[in-house]
Amino acid sequence: MAENKQVTNTDRLFKIAITLKGLDGAIQVIGALILVFIPSSVVTGFAHAVITRDLLGDPSGTLARHLELATENFVNGGTKTFAVVYLLAHGVVKLALVWALARKWLRAYPVAMVVLGAFVVYEVYRAIETHSIALPFFAALDALIIVLVYREYRQLRRERASQRDRGGSAGGSPGGSAEGSGS
């Protein structure tokens, strides 16, 4: 363990973000598998119950209309297939990237940024197409995580360059002295 490394707020935020992304990825995979087996009648019944019991406020209000539209698209459109494929792909990719980032595999960082960037573009496109109120939120979160991944990538590259400059000492840490760690 690198005792001399100062843990910054950005480091903590990055670790929290990839942990949340990992949990999100696992939930998405589970959600996709559940959606495969849920009949459309259960989805429409749930939406109807939420709307008629005023759980979203006025049954003719904006949130109720969004839920009705989303349910209709889910049942009659290709949204169920989209949701299953999207959740499964997004979840598996997130889990793989989180695994690689947690192990500080340097090559995974640019891949993660490109993949998350593609998800952001697609989430925005899909939000415009379906008038989703959730997708822009998820796109913004993914954009924030891209920034955190980029910052962590730059820091990791600096640390590894510093280690190489000190003669490749694996136990060296940024900010620590090179003396005493070499032979």
Produce a short descriptive summary.
With 183 residues, the protein is mostly helical. Helix content is 74%, strand content 0%. The chain contains six helices and no strands.
For the terminal residues, how far apart are their CA atoms? 19 Å
- Secondary-structure element series: HHHHHH
Proportion of residues in β-strands: under 5%
Radius of gyration: 22 Å
Shape annotation = elongated
Topology, number of strands: 0
Classification by helices and strands: mainly alpha
Overall pLDDT score: 80
Unreliable residue runs: 170-183
Portion of residues in helices?
Answer: over 70%
Characterize the main sheet. Answer: none
Number of helices: 6
Structure write-up:
- The model is unreliable at 170-183 (pLDDT under 50).
- The protein starts with 8 loop residues before the first helix and ends in an 18-residue tail after the last helix.
- By secondary structure, it is an all-alpha fold.
- It is built from six helices and no strands.
- It is elongated.
- The chain has helices spanning 9-37, 40-52, 62-76, 79-102, 108-130, 135-165.
- Helices cover 74% and strands 0% of the residues.
